[in-house]
Amino acid sequence: MECGDKRTRETMTDMTLPGDGFRLDGRVAIVTGASSGLGAAVARALAAVGARVAIVARREDRLAALAKEIDGLAVGADLLEADQVDTVVPRVAAELGGPQILVNAAGNIFSQARAEDESADALARTLALNLVAPFRLSQQAFPHMREAGRGSIVHISSISGLVGIGSIPQASYAASKAGLSGLTSELAVQWARHRIRVNTVAPGFFRSEITGDLFDTESGQKWLHRNTPLPDDATPEDIVGAVLWLAGDAARFVTGQTIAVDGGWTAR
Question: Which GO terms describe its molecular function (predicted)?
Answer without folding.
Answer: oxidoreductase activity, acting on the CH-OH group of donors, NAD or NADP as acceptor
